[in-house]
Specification:
Radius of gyration: 22 Å
Mean pLDDT: 89
Distance between the termini: 19 Å
Low-confidence stretches: 1-14
Number of strands: 14
Strand content: 25-35%
Order of helices and strands: HEEEEEEEEEEEEEEH
Shape: globular
Largest sheet: 6 strands, antiparallel
Length: about 280
């Protein structure tokens, strides 16, 4: 089929995306519209779908990995952080994304029992070394023992893999250096694993990039600074704090020390989605 007469950048986009689903948020990949209109349907608000309702989960839950759909098992899988007095990595499954089960896995001792849904890549580790972050599902890996991938450790990232998302093992490869925030995805077009990690930059915390073709050999993120705040951000951030201090209608800062005002980048989640 002859490609539409777009500019060269758009032609490259169309060639790249042929045979793949498209997210039609704009007309970038559309040559012409006739007798159709775009209709964006509002999302439905359901409220919390998973709560800390087990004794070992503590009073709150924290997410550091998005839910993953297993096309083989036809279920959603979720990894989250909880714990009553000790930080645990917890595992849940769902058929519809609304109703979640927390299987008793007998992997990790918590509160004197292994009857819980906690998992670990190494039972000897405690927080923050036992953190399991940025877990993704990789259906294209030819090795079924590496279908799930993620990072171990809240400081520095140790690549880990799993066959089903429950039993994990660490790869014997160098760490990806990072402080306490990162994000991971696989780009199906370039076939690269992409990690955005956090290091100091020109104005405090900044985002750096590390990529890998095999999930084992990663580029040094400190060689690739991709996003950081600038001088204008500092001015806008300080102005926003002053606005809260001076306004009668806005909440006041708990601590107000103008000499310590700093606007920086805490995290930058990135992912590839439908073209």
């Amino acid at each position: 089929a002859k490609l539409p007469d777009f500019n060269s950048a758009s032609v490259r986009t169309v060639k790249l995306s042929m045979g793949r689903k498209q997210l039609f948020l704009d007309n970038d990949a559309v040559a012409r519209l006739e007798n159709v209109k775009r209709q964006l349907h509002p999302p439905q608000k359901y409220g919390p779908v998973i709560r800390p309702d087990r004794p070992w989960e503590g009073g709150g839950l924290e997410i550091r990995s998005g839910p993953a759909w297993s096309r083989e098992e036809k279920i959603w899988k979720l990894w989250y952080l909880g714990g009553d007095g000790e930080s645990l990595i917890l595992y849940a499954t769902s058929e519809d994304g609304l109703h979640w089960s927390k299987p008793l896995l007998n992997r990790v001792m918590a509160g004197g029992s292994k009857q819980n849904n906690a998992i670990t890549a190494d039972p000897s580790l405690k927080w923050p070394e036992n953190a399991m972050l940025n877990i993704i599902y990789d259906p294209d890996d030819p090795d079924p023992q590496r279908r799930y991938k993620g990072f171990l450790g809240a400081f520095g990232r140790k690549p880990i893999v799993s066959a089903e998302g429950v039993d994990w093992h660490r790869l014997n490869v160098p760490n990806i250096e990072s402080s306490d925030e990162s994000h991971l995805f696989r780009d199906p077009v370039s076939r690269l694993y992409v990690a955005t990690v956090k290091h100091g930059g020109p104005y405090g915390r900044s985002v750096y990039l590390s990529v890998s073709k095999d999930f084992e050999r990663w580029t040094d993120p400190r060689d690739c600074l991709i996003f950081h705040a600038d001088k204008r951000d500092q001015e806008l951030g300080a102005a926003r704090v002053r606005m809260h201090v001076e306004s009668q209608d806005l909440r006041k800062p708990t601590i107000n020390q103008p000499e310590e005002y700093q606007t920086d980048i805490y995290n930058l989640p990135v992912f590839s989605y439908e073209g």
